[in-house]
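Pipeline run #58 for the internal structure catalog. This entry was flagged by the ingest filter as a single-chain record with no existing model, so it goes straight to prediction. Upstream metadata was stripped on purpose; only the residue string is passed forward. Reviewer on rotation: M.T. Logging verbosity set to normal.
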Amino acid sequence: MSVATIAREGNIAVVTVDNPPVNALSQAVRQGLVDAVAELDNDQDVAAVVLACAGRTFIAGADVSEFDKPPQPPHLPDVVSAIELAAKPWIAAIHGSALGGGFEVALGCRFRLATADASVGLPEVTLGIVPGAGGTVRTVRLAGIASAVDLVTTGKPVRGPRALELGLVDRIVEGDLRTAAIAFARDTLSHPLPQPLSQRPAPTVTDTFFTETEAAIAKRARGEVAPLKALACLRRATETDFAAAMQFERATFLELRASEQASALRHVFFAERAAPRPAALSGVQTLPLRNAAVVGGGTMGAGIAAALRDAGLPVILIERDDAAVARGIANLKDIFAGAVKRGRLTEAAAEARLAGVTGSTDYAALADTDLVIEAVFEELSVKRQVFEQLGRVCRPDAVLATNTSYLDPRAIAEGLPNPGRFIGLHFFSPANVMKLLEIVPTPQTGDQTQATGFALARMLGKVPVRAGICEGFIGNRILKRYRAEAEALVRQGVPIAAVDAAMRAYGFAMGPFEAQDLGGLDIAFLQREGARAAGQDVPETLGDIMVRAGRKGQKTGGGWYDYQAGDRRPLGSEEVARLLRPLIQPGPALDAEAIAAHLVGAMAREGEAILGQGIAEKASDIDLVEIHGYGFPRWRGGPMFQAAKSAGSLS
């Protein structure tokens, strides 16, 4: 069956791409479009062409199955050029998403119509490449340099109304898109046609604009190459003629396509694509998720409740007394107010989010709740008391989840009626922002409950990873090793600031010591003290020395670094040097690259142990945990990807 069919509505032809599930630009689709141009150019009865797509979306981008294969003709730039220079004007009718190559095809059309809920964009930088079929060259001619820079260097798509404001589309369509596009096509025939984008002049841009923009992007990218390369393509598009700019863009695209960063980002792309629907749960029916409850309204509980409300679920917030309920609601109000301040929510939307939360001290209010997530203090006895009450009042089929970070979920659920409906859901703070969700089943957790956990992650827009039971699960276990190895380097005479600087240079937003100062050294200290109190042999850490000296991080004005009042900039500390001096035995000097290699290698070795023990199912799952929960630079692919690359097991 053809993937690009032609229908005629009087003197208007409708070319429909049908290549499920997302109408990706496979070789067959590219060939079908080129063939359609040739056929319709030779049809004297056709005056204009509408390009539409079957199914749930317009052309959503490249065919991912072709990512690691040599490009096959017809190449996309030639397809777009054929559409753009066709004898008959083409009109793109966009619904769903027109992304990457899909939007480049739309740019080749003389006009673009879109539904209000459609989105358009050029997300290539998120895969370590740049648009390769004129995306940079045509966008500056269509929407100007500022809009093109934002669209191309961030990779973020825009919705229909915003696309109309930017000039990326010509009209927003209400009602039937196909009918409206045909009517629009007929109407265009009575007006002079706009020039193809390839024939329009590029805007004039000052050197100062590019210098300032390059500095801003370099700061944001933290070592990622593609955004700066994309800016270079946009600059070339304003400084040379169309053909030369196209040649530069294509050469840049092909260069990056073969790069290590693109390989790493493809690895992450495929891992993220597979994560929400694990093969082991294929076909398993999920339990209903019509409403939810959160027990505990502190920072974590409020963040979870906000995430549930963002997904449209009504939420009951349970606390121990009225004052705690009021504090929990106030925490939620602050979260939504912050979203309004950042422009992510309107005032009305924030009020609606808050209105969907009911505070209560009575567990009986949970009698008909589909999902309850416990987010109280990380103390086993407190959590067990919560689940004792939940076991009495909740429906037998309600999913009951704990948000523990370190405790054994089996101990938390001990004695719970119908333990098959119990599961660990480890959110990361702030829970309404962080994308990682570790899903931790116990041996008794049923498949339906697990499938429901993954369905919840999809509903919340999270990246779910199944984790087995051990101290810290996947992420915090690796974090513990990472911090221990960082301390070991300090014991060998590597300055604290040098360790942090090396990891920033590697692509992390912060080094391990800066991050601890921000979060508080006392959190991990209390966990270690609890383990010691339980009789475990936990060696003294340098962090313990800091906390016992009253240095808990930024909140006390000093941790690994000193801080001045009202200033978060870390300053070298004479007191820290004095405290640690007796414990330091200098070793060989290490440069930034060696420091980063040592720490990332340690993370990977812990990951190998986690895989060997069955705590994680796939190496790529560990990479997702580190990227989405701990700030590992996405463009490096994760510690397991890096280890495989170093071992030569990646092509």
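catalog note: The chain has three domains: 4-258, 280-466, 475-614.
catalog note: The chain has 26 helices and 17 strands.
status: ready for reviewer M.T.
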